[in-house]
Amino acid sequence: MSSGLPSYDEAAALVAAYAAQLNPYGQAERVGLDQAHGRALARPLCADRDQPPFARSTRDGYACRAAEAAEHVNLAVAGLTRAGEAPGGPLPRQTVWEIMTGAPVPDGADAVVMVEHVEAEGGRVRLLPPRTVTAGENIVAQGAQARAGEELLPAGTAIGFAQVALAAACGYAELEVFARPRVAILTTGDEIVPVESEPAPGQIRNSNGPMLAALVSAAGGEPWILPTARDNAEALDAALAQSASADLLLVTGGVSAGKFDLVEPALARCGARFHFTGVRMQPGKPVVFAELPTPGTKRNQNQRPAQQCCFGLPGNPVSSAVTFLLFAAPVLAALSGRLDRGPRFALARLAEDVKGRPGLTRFLPASCTFGARNGELPEVACVEWQGSGDLAAMARSNCFLVVPEETERLPAGATVRILLG
Ligand code: AMP
Ligand code: MG
């Protein structure tokens, strides 16, 4: 039955190729540094001056000529520079210069000896044997990290804490970032009620909407949660029409083979071109990847393409999450202008045997102890679960164990791949 479907690797390659030809949406905007986390640089980040801007001492101690200090003779202290002061010096022959961490090294000095490594008495300093010192020690040369005008980060770099710090060091109070793509989240199902309501017998609360909103935000998108659509053609047609202006469309539920799984035909009525309608994986097998024509939308400055990318994610929450991370997140990253598009995998050591399903790549909710000991892989174990509707199991997990398609059994101790959220 699943033999006509692409394998996970084939489906992932299709999505990656599609994402590779996408341009980031929208016009870049300027945001303050405090708003930049999670966005992507729309322009390269450049050094406004040399980094460091002066030869900088990395220690409290004495700037010296290494060749003189290494003789272990007494050298007179010729001056002192604190952090924030202009460079002192030049350093006279046979002297040292007292210096603090972060202060500019005086002209003529080529090393700094640490205050802990000298004997200081009566304005004279001697490097204590067996310590020695060589030129360059404890000094970061001017421009060693970057030269003025040099590109430090390319456009498309995702902005995290380190990029915020670098931007601040380079004088960017604001950054130009790509617009956040608007992602329509359309949940479907006659049984689904909003979180605020008391479910009647047979009803369940909409957990996919808030879950996908969280995933979309984390991946750099702006979630747009639509009202849940009922399982009938009219409701689905209306909802799809409403969501046509979104940059990316995520539909959950209604993509399996059941009598009321009507999403695929509704997409077809919109003129969808299907890239795949199912993947040899578990959970998530019914996942749909399609492009929808967007005839109503004019091509404007923002270069909105004539096609809207759409993923039909299976309704079971674990399936929805896994297929979002594997397929929708890379497309969303591309639309957000990010160079790193995921999904993110890592290696771990398996704690207990795990069964495979030959013919299907499995992605099982698992718990990984990332605080591994030095030199050891982190250890991962599956979380006990009752199938792809088991939200509680997923909430106790922090990754998904990947069981390759051809595997009958992964033995304890094996090095395995995990999918990170
Ligand atoms: P479906 O893909 O529509 O066949 O749904 C598969 C399972 O996922 C069913 O048990 C649904 O009740 C459940 N489900 C569908 N949509 C949601 C949702 N938005 N939130 C939570 N569970 C859902
Ligand atoms: Mg359904």
Structure description:
This protein has 421 residues and is of the alpha/beta class. It folds into four domains: 8-27 and 180-335, MoaB/Mog-like domain (Molybdenum Cofactor Biosythetic Enzyme, Chain A, 3-Layer(aba) Sandwich), CATH 3.40.980; 28-45 and 155-178, Alpha-Beta Complex (Molybdopterin biosynthesis moea protein, domain 2); 56-140, Molybdopterin biosynthesis moeA protein, domain 3; 345-420, Beta-clip, CATH 2.40.340. 19% of the residues lie in helices and 28% in strands. The strands form eight sheets. The chain has a six-stranded mixed beta sheet. α1 runs parallel beside α7, α4 (208-218) packs parallel to α7 (317-335) and α5 crosses α6 (263-269). The longest helix is centred in the C-terminal third of the chain and has 19 residues, at 317-335. The protein is elongated. The two termini are 30 Å apart. Magnesium ion (MG) is lined by residues 189, 231, 253-254, 315. Magnesium ion binds next to loops.
Please write out the topology.
Blueprint (H helix, E strand, L loop, with lengths): L7 H13 L8 E4 L12 E2 L9 E2 L3 E4 L1 H4 L5 E7 L13 E5 L11 E4 L3 E4 L2 E4 L11 E2 L10 E3 L7 H9 L4 E4 L4 E6 L4 E2 L10 E2 L2 H11 L3 E4 L7 H10 L5 E5 L10 H7 L3 E5 L3 E2 L5 E6 L13 E7 L3 H19 L9 E6 L3 E2 L5 E9 L9 E4 L8 H6 L2 E5 L5 E2 L4 E6 L1
Parallel strand pairs: 5-6, 13-16, 13-17, 14-15, 17-21, 19-24, 22-25
Antiparallel strand pairs: 1-12, 2-11, 3-10, 4-6, 4-7, 5-9, 8-9, 18-20, 20-21, 22-28, 23-27, 24-25, 24-26, 26-28
Helix pairs in contact: 1-7, 4-7, 5-6
Bound molecules: adenosine monophosphate and magnesium ion (MG).
